[in-house]
Amino acid sequence: MATNPTYMILHHFLVVLLLLLQQHSILTQAPPGGGKWNLLLSNIGVSAICLLLNTDRVVIFDRTDFGPSNISFPNNQCRDNPKDLTLKHDCTAHSVEYDVASNSIRPLNVFTDVWCSSGAAMPDGSLMQTGGFNDGDNNVRVYKPCNDNSCDWQEFDSVLKQNRWYATNHILPDGRQIIVGGRGQFTYEFYPKKTGADQSYNLPFLSQTNDPRIENNLYPFVFLNVDGNLFIFANNRAILFDYVNGAVVRNYPTIPGGDPRSYPSSGSAVLLPLRDLQGANTTAEVLVCGGAPKGSFTKANNGNFVGALSTCGRIQITDPNPQWVMETMPLARVMGDMVLLPNGNVLIINGASMGTAGWDLGRNPVLTPLIYRPNNPVGLRFEAQNSSSIPRMYHSTAILLRDGRILVSGSNPHAYYNFTRVLFPTDLTMETLSPDYLDPRLARVRPKIVSPTSHSQIGYGQQLVINFNAQGRINRGLITVTMVAPPFTTHSFSMNQRLLVLTGTNHIRANVTSLRTSSYQVRVVTPSSNILAPPGYYLLFVVYREVPSQGIWVQIK
């Protein structure tokens, strides 16, 4: 029987289409359970609290009152502090700067005790760190970045009105920082100080959420809402706070179950990506994950380590009738960290599945990170990643780097540095997790930003033209542009963490230069106000099919 020519043509077309779809699948999908771990340094000298600077260097520090660290000052330099509680003549550093490009560490000199302090990046890119313990509890320290290894900490003594230990900072639209709470401090204050706002102000919500002898309201989760007010979560509930007039605008419902999520029952939280609608009603959602059941801290101190919480609560804080929507993680977790990825997904990493935060109070480390995809349907949002081999318990950190990797370090559940004969030794290693979007098989779809150049300054509500290269032709509807603020990360919370999805990406122009590489131009509108994007440095990414470019630094002012 003769073959129908039309049938043959259609059959050939379908075969080719199937092969193209298979190739497309290989190029745009990393295998489930992805992510690659890489050990960078076996000893950075200190256990990590950290912030990424716009010089692609990470400032790391630890408390000063536990004795010598594992990194010495150069040139016989020492720190002589008669107020230090452990070592008044100390020739070791308690802060370091990590250079991402050279994978190297440089010791820094922090003088007073920064134990369990707080901080955020300032509009000029400096790190402002506040409070601590003992002689440092009402001090402010500033680290101004440089490229020639000449920069170091500057200290300003007794400039805070209250002692700030276990407090939370957030940058405000005018460039100041608000400092909220702290152990025994049910107040807030601002820094730098200005006339008319130079005092400490009561915040009764903090005393209302304080569990006697346990607390469960330290390091409160603070986010700047799109209306200019502050969302403040402590223990198991939250308020919307007008910090200008010192008034509670709204009380949010208690998170279902009523279990605490704040230190020492340490869960973690993020403000989910904000899509700037340029004057329309931008919505904001907060995600709170993990923590420990009521009573866990007391039980852990008595040797009974209760299983951590496996739930996440998600709430649209701009909704007229906000309600928590609960989800269940594949793994229970306390002392975890949450990192906003350039593609808008959330990484949940580090921590334990039993116990609480505090000295030797955690058990059963959780070695498997999770990816949370906020735009997926409920029930399809969590995906396990490849496991680390290093427990990251109390005093661990994780931050996003400009190339899309996650820098992971820290873990010291002891009052001093203990490396032997303990369940979880002090860990001074540094490693990275490369999420599945960095899988080599996705290199073909990874954009490369050509312009603007890094460290360009941008204004508010302006058109921004971004030129980038990509291999082959792209689906223009799958391009997004994001801006990520570098957070200050400690005790399971990344202060000032913020991701904006810029609008206008439907304006894309292509210039196909070869079969392998094409150049594209996308026009977006920068954030419309300093409420959506407080002034300072951000990492800007072009993302295609959830695969981000390397970021560039931009400064909005």
Structural account:
- This is Aldehyde oxidase GLOX.
- GO terms for molecular function: oxidoreductase activity.
- Keywords: Oxidoreductase, Secreted, Signal.
- InterPro entries: Gal_Oxase/kelch_b-propeller, Gal_Oxidase_central_sf, Glyoxal_oxidase_N, GO-like_E_set, Ig-like_fold, Ig_E-set.
- It is found in: Secreted.
- There is one protein chain.
- The protein has three helices and 45 strands.
- Residues about 1-30 have low confidence and may be disordered.
- The strands form eleven sheets. Strands 21, 35, 37, 40, 43, 44 and 45 form a seven-stranded mixed beta sheet that branches. The chain has a six-stranded antiparallel beta sheet with strand order 7-6-3-2-38-39, with no helix packed on it.
- About 5% of the residues lie in helices and about 35% in strands.
- It is mainly beta.
- The chain is globular.
- Strand 23 (about 310-315) and strand 24 form a beta hairpin.
- It has two domains: about 35-440, 7 Propeller (Methylamine Dehydrogenase, Chain H); about 440-555, Immunoglobulins (Immunoglobulin-like).
Quick take:
With 557 residues, this protein is mainly beta. 6% of the residues lie in helices and 36% in strands.
Which key features would you list for this structure?
single chain, 557 residues, mainly beta, Methylamine Dehydrogenase, Chain H, Immunoglobulin-like, 2 domains, seven-stranded mixed β-sheet, six-stranded antiparallel β-sheet, globular, disordered N terminus, Gal_Oxase/kelch_b-propeller, signal, secreted
